[in-house]
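Continuing the batch. This is chain 6 of the set; chains 1 through 5 are on the previous pages. Same settings as before, nothing changed between runs. Recording input and output for traceability.
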Amino acid sequence: MDAAKDFQPHQDRSTLSSIQTDESSPTSVCVMGLTLFVLIYYLIDISFYIRYEEKVLPFGDPFTYAIGFFKLLDDAHRNYLSALLSTVNGQRNWYWLLNILISVLSPILVKESFSISLVNFLLFWLASLSFFRLGRSVGGSWAQAFLIGMLVWIFPINYGFSTYASVPVTGLDAAFTAALYIALANTLTFAYNPSNFLNASIAGLACGVAVWGRGNSIPTVFMVVCVPLAWVVWIGWQHRGIRVWRNLACCLAIFGGMAVYFYWTNWGPLVEYYSNQTQMASRHPWSFRDARVWLLNIPGYLFWRYTNSPVTIFVSMVLHVFMTVSLWFTFSKERWGKVGVTSPILRVFSAAGVLIYSVTYVTNIVLFTDPLFTLENVLLIYQPMLCGIALVFAVVLLLYVPRSVSKLRVNLVLLVVAGMLIFAVAFTSMQTPMNWGLDRPTPREVERFALEIDGLLAGEPLSILWYGFYNPRILTFYRVKSDLPDLRYYMGRYYNNLWSAVDYSNENREHIRQEVREHFLKSGLIIIPEYWDLYTENQPYALYKFRADLVAFLNSNEAPRLRVLRTLTDHPGARLVVLQREELAHGRGIPFPLPYGKKPDPTSLDFLEPNGVVNAHVRAAHVTAERSSEAGPSGPVTNILEEDTEKTLHAIEMSLESDPDGPRQLSVWLKNAGRNNFRVQITDAFGARGMIANGNLGTDCKMLGSGVYGAAQLSTATIEKSGSGWCKVTLEGRIAPPVRQALAKIFLADEGGQLEYSGDPVKGFMISGLSFK
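Output for chain 6:
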């Protein structure tokens, strides 16, 4: 007879006794408490969601996933069973877990992000119940188990909208994290009682569902559940239990079958997608400098979202120590605490928690430190660490929360629920960045353009050679929400090459030239930035890196004649132009100005046109310039007025590149317009050596002093009085050793001759006949 066929987990008598005498075991009260928290928080979160989406334009991965979810909802509303089947037969994408839940719940869902987020709340509710069940299964009192059930909600990253991993956000990350919690809790329940066939089946199903959570799920899921499953193998080996082996086989069969079917169905798309991700992970050599931000801020940033803050770093260090101590507990033969819990399952808890925590931390820091990765955009890869932390916290609760707390019954549940709701609302408020809408177009602006664009397209495809707040995804998002058909975008053979973040080869450059040319010749509308330097080189896209080729084409004779139908503000200082070929515009709009050039410098005063050379560039430093109708002694007059600023310098600056061996001369006519005192100077590009002169624009036009510093020679520093209050100032000399680039500055000074002072916007001087040579 098999001695282990009826194997049951070992518990000490005190534990068994306490379970048996636990008053009425109010499981229903705990389940209602966990459910009440999730329901109330979801209703509160809806109000945050509505206000947030009214102020902040959707961005990043979550709203792109929402597009597919909205389309799935449309299909499910038309044909429920067909839509549900399409989620698991490879017709859509590999987001099976969310797709299935959205299809199942489609009768009560609408095309709003807050509605779609209900599936995340559902999964976290199931995770909470799974942890509660785990707590009860291993011998915890109902109060201990209830607190363990709340563990999945104690992490601040769950709340708000400032990261993709938050529960309300409609990405894959929150759902996958919840699926990991569910798989972990149920495999541990199975590990505690491996003779139970139902436990084995639920564990296998939970693991399989977690695999369906995202495309690269299998390594993470295996890491999370490997310790509990290894413990089951050990139990089966030690006790020679046929029932244990049979149940383990059942669990692995369900788990493996679901995983094999998932990857068999989605293998092609997954390989193509993650091959690009592999390039991203391997293209940049590892360095401590790049890893430093992760070493200091993880996992603290999951709790306190301020990079490099003392609180964030402190939390990281405390958790490292906490998990290290837990590792010691795993292998220690001593009992912990005053509670006589001798079951080795707590050591399994601790071992699993430390493994999940450590492997996630080390693996990601080794593989993902490319400068393109930030705490914001890849924080999700550290989410499994929360599973490890939750497990070790569960050990602490089982060891140190007195079982007598159970006598509080309903009061304890209500107290914890109320406290957690306050915690959740506080962090939701802190981590809902309403101010992010200040530097973006309003959602209403973008939505209006998305809904009205059909009237401009004339049946032709749309091209958007830009990736900012106006992009194909955001336009599609609003059109799908409003039940409008998808726009037709022009995408040639090399369209994806435009957005490559790794391929900057000459071959790809030629492909991009061809793709850009076709966009202008074959699209009905083309959207590009108003100025080419808005294609900033700090962006990783190949189109931005090879922006010169787009400029060359637009300024060539080969480019079609274009008209500007509309301008859009993408963000402050960056406007887009909506262009259409002249033959399609039928007289609408205005001609697209050529040559396609750089954005004008808002501080430029080049219109002053300094005499002598054409490459002397003039800039404003805390002053403004206004044209005057007055005729000056040497050409047009410009009023130079101070900006209304705190204590600072007020000046006009000129840079000049010319023959390094010649003398430098600054000559200008100045007239008092509220400021009498001034300084003129000529220096090298770094201000390390040069010549200066101070003067006064009073009735006598006085030069108050002059001199040199560093290696410079002063030849002339004069001021000449002319009619109508004008004074001609001349400064000339040589900079040694000779330099090709020189700087000239004309400073305003206050009544005491100080150069740094708070500006008065009605004071300054007039300028005419500026010359720097």
